[in-house]
Amino acid sequence: MRYVIVGGGVAGTTAAEELRKLDPESEITLICEEQHPLYSRVLLGVYVQGKVPRERTFLKKESWYEEKKIEWLRGVHVDALDTQNKFVALSDGRELSYDKLLISSGKEVRTVEYDQRGVMYFRTIDDADHIIQLLAEQGKDACGGIYGGGFIACEFLNIYEAHNIRTVLTFRGEHFWNSNLLPEAGELLLNHFRSKGVDVIAHAELKGLVGDKELEGFVTEQGEHPCTMLGIGVGILSDFSWLEEAGVKIGVGVKADKFLQTSVADVYVAGDISEFEDVYVGREMNVGTWLNAIMQGRVVAKNMTGEPTVFELVSSYAMNVLGIDIIFVGDVAKSEADDVHLVGSVRSGGVTQVFERGGRVVGGVMINRNTDRKVITDAVKSGMPVSDVLNKINT
Amino acid sequence: MIMPKIRVRVDEDLCIGAASCVTIAPETFQLNEDNKAWVLDHGEEPGGSTYERWLEVTEDEKENILLGAQSCPTLAIFIYEEDGTQIFPEM
């Protein structure tokens, strides 16, 4: 059996490891766009904050791939897929045939149209090294800007705080995560950021940069904001063109059933790029979390080796930003919910949102209310009535 | 049957509550009010809540706890053999 895996992040690498266990004699090829062995994106923020050394972010050694007899192709990507003749064409001209193919190529950062030395993105270890370089160069003269209202903006908030850098935070909507948070939760977060000395500017649209050789600031409708570093976190996207051309069904991600099988025979998907049938929340989901990627990597390997296994997970993402805990569990899209219940208040310093659809709890957001996490996770799994969940977390 | 004895430790400074260990090995890891993982002994907490304890486990249980540790995105889980040798993360 010949397995080809496109993408060497945590989903693809976990799948490779699991395939080797399940099918010791098979041929496994892992195609990676990056040059590095598997590292933890989750640790990159901590690395840039100076709390762990660079080598700690790596989860596999270079020698691991050979030890596991996994052919590791670095610095290449797939240009085309032929599902009839079952091969992929690589950017270096090679063509690789497969019996089973896994798409786990993840996502890339969405960029803004302006660029200048001092503009930073945060997705890869190369991005992290770039930020560290700028921090080292600028030292005490650094002044930090952020454009974005999501988890990457939170990473930059933590990085600037760790390096004592004055921060101006700008984002497009009313508050953070406008498609997920109710106004109370949004207000709680922004109040917290302000209490930590962050200059917060909502409804901001990036209009341009200031500075010739080096960044001196950025411009929004609200005016010019001086900064020497500007962290951008405006989302991620995938290049689906090669998959669309091959006839693979695409939505917001690569469409898959609950077995992570795509619309094309012998082609599977896992990780950030998948849009899969989520058996717990009852709709197709595209989830960009570590937990989802690693668990899909494990399950997809079973399905690829012919052991039908339903992907069952209540996904979650947790982060501490400037000392406040934020947790997302399950389906937290306001637009997909019948109702979003609010527990707690800005005044009490903690807010939980419970997302209801079809009489069931499908997700939750907790800000400084960590203990509600288990109740909501269990409720999403078990289909506990909404009123019971609200009673439980209100007490 | 001789059960292997292992020591499991969660570094509370590194733990961020990603919940991968809890998902894979819920009998050994559960998140607390600080959104960090306590170490449990087969779902129980003899002697109270703690980030570190000795466990007597079967080979299968040991394998699963190792998987839980390997799945941690911050490598916050440390596992030691009875003689003190660190088996995860590999040194």
Give the tally of structural domains of chain A.
3
CATH-defined fold name of the largest domain in chain A? FAD/NAD(P)-binding domain
Biggest sheet character of chain B:
4 strands, antiparallel
The general outline of chain B is: globular
CATH architecture of the largest domain in chain A: 3-Layer(bba) Sandwich
Q: Structural class of the helix and strand makeup of chain B?
A: alpha+beta
Determine the mean pLDDT of chain B.
95
If you had to describe this structure to a student in words, what would you say it looks like?
The complex is a heterodimer of chains A (395) and B (91). By secondary structure, chain A is α/β, with parallel strands linked by helices. Chain A is 27% helix and 28% strand. In chain A, strands 3-2-1-7-19 form a five-stranded parallel sheet. Chain A has a five-stranded parallel sheet with strand order 9-16-10-11-12, covered by helices on one side. In chain A, strands 22-23-26-25-24 form a five-stranded antiparallel sheet, with helices on both faces. In chain A, helix 1 (10-22) packs parallel to helix 8 (290-304), helix 2 packs parallel to helix 4 (125-138) and helix 9 (372-382) runs antiparallel to helix 10 (386-394). In chain B, strands 4-1-5-6 form a four-stranded antiparallel sheet. Chain B starts with a strand and ends with a strand. Chain B is 19% helix and 26% strand. In chain B, strand 5 and strand 6 (86-88) form a beta hairpin. The A-B interface holds A 10, 40-43, 46, 51-52, 56, 59, 290-291, 294-295, 313, 316-320, 325, 327, 370-371, 373-374 and B 13-14, 16-20, 23, 30-35, 71, 73-75. Chain B: This is Ferredoxin. Chain B: Residues 6-34 form the 4Fe-4S ferredoxin-type domain.
